[in-house]
Specification:
Elements lengths: L4 H29 L7
Length: about 40
């Protein structure tokens, strides 16, 4: 299987950025709604 490294990395970076973005949004949403005691 031949993979174009540039395409692979572009896709990889996009995926990672999206994950980070979603995690950050979840964290912000949770931190507003959840009292500090319940943060795990």
């Amino acid at each position: 299987m031949k993979v174009n490294p540039i395409e692979f990395w572009e896709e990889f970076i996009q995926t990672e950025l999206l994950k980070i973005h979603l995690q950050r949004n979840n964290f912000l949403r949770n931190s507003k709604n959840v009292p500090p005691m319940n943060v795990s």
